[in-house]
Amino acid sequence: MALFPFCKSPAGPVRMNRIQLLLCCFLLSLIIYFFNGRKAAASLESAHPLSQVLGMKDGMILKDMSSMKTVDSKTPQETSWGAPMVWGDSHNSVWRRAKLSERGIRVGLLALVVGTYARFVRHFLYSAENHFLPGQMVTYYILTDNPRTLDPPVELGPGRQMKVLPAAELPGWDRLAYRRMVLFAEALWGSIGKEVNYIFCVDVDQEFVGPVGEEILGDLVATLHPEFFEMPRNNFPYEDQEESSACVEEDEGDYYYTSEFYGGVVSQMRRLLRECSLLILQDEANKVMAKGLEESYLNRYLIDHRPTCVLSPEYSWWDSPLTAHVPKKRLISLGRQCEAYDIEKRELQRC
Ligand SMILES: CC(=O)N[C@H]1[C@@H](OP(=O)(O)OP(=O)(O)OC[C@H]2O[C@@H](n3ccc(=O)[nH]c3=O)[C@H](O)[C@@H]2O)O[C@H](CO)[C@H](O)[C@@H]1O
Ligand SMILES: [Mn+2]
């Protein structure tokens, strides 16, 4: 009422004639129009990858409730096939978290840690303890050639545990890129499959920097690659060698997904890992390797089996001139971040 003092007679209850009533409605519409217009402008500026190129930084990110409305009103909330597109602060995510958090869910996080990548594992685990499904039962499965890396063990919260699984040493990413999905597939056919409901495969050269909750849970979950979000389809680096089993035709494909973070229920993940491994082994036998390595096979599979839940680039982010601007960063790739730095900055960051 204080907003419209002129609508109220000084004597007490509101008594307006028709002209006053019309005037009030007009003013009200003006105010609504003004606020909506501002929100739309803010979201347009903040959502576009060009804002990065032009040097616009986090100052554009709205940190109060209005940012939630921005996410809801301007960013896509679902895919063309009806799967949710997940932005952690959206109303959909709040609802999904509330719905799923009450169930007794067991979630596994599966990472490969071989050779020099052992330097990432502790930091990765600390950050996951802080941000990854807090309060839920989480098991970290660490496939490693050097279990001593985890000695002394990282202290974990209640309901959370770690299992170290042996992996033979496979020097060089060239060889490892052929093997990671095979190793993951084997691990999932073993005891992991009975111990958890959901499993997420994750690169260990990453850090959780914001909350990642039950909103990420789905039957088959893939994450949008931050450099190709909102890019036209013809920019996606799908495999184009016809002899590769990861090859994608020009009229195929909806999104380009990252291999840094994907998951789902155990049955779906067993299928994904088995089928991708078969494609990789088939190409290896034919002496072909897709240019995007593992990521190409994952993308091929996800064209044939569309994910039921698509995570926005909030869940796979690093700073580069091409990266989409996101309302909140939740999981960032330290390795890919390093790749995006110039030589000077790499030396400064010691990476
Ligand atoms: C090694 C390599 O060429 N990485 C390239 C690959 O990053 P990616 O992020 O695709 O691969 P990555 O180097 O992070 O390797 C994937 C994951 O495999 C595991 N792992 C990998 C290698 C290793 O020696 N030990 C180990 O444990 C580890 O969990 C790692 O997180 O693509 C990027 C661009 O998209 C950059 O070009 C990276 O330089
Ligand atoms: Mn990585």
From TrEMBL:
Subcellular localization(s) per the UniProt record: Membrane
Residues that bind an alpha-L-fucosyl-(1->2)-beta-D-galactosyl derivative: H225, E295
Top-level lineage group: Eukaryota
One cellular component GO annotation, for this chain's record? membrane
Is Transferase among this UniProt entry's keywords? yes
- Give the membrane topology, semicolon-separated if more than one: Single-pass type II membrane protein
For this protein, the record's InterPro entries field holds: Glyco_trans_6, Nucleotide-diphossugar_trans
Q: Name one GO biological process term.
A: carbohydrate metabolic process
Binding positions (UDP-N-acetyl-alpha-D-galactosamine)? Y117, D203, V204, D205
Task: Name the needed cofactors.
Answer: Mn(2+)
Annotated residues for binding of Mn(2+): D203, D205
Keywords for the protein's UniProt record, in alphabetical order: Glycosyltransferase, Manganese, Metal-binding, Transferase
- A GO MF term: hexosyltransferase activity
Q: What is its main location?
A: membrane
Q: How is the cofactor bound?
A: Binds 1 Mn(2+) ion per subunit.
Record: active site: E295
Protein family membership: Belongs to the glycosyltransferase 6 family.
Q: What is this protein called?
A: Globoside alpha-1,3-N-acetylgalactosaminyltransferase 1-like
* Species the sequence originates in: Poecilia mexicana
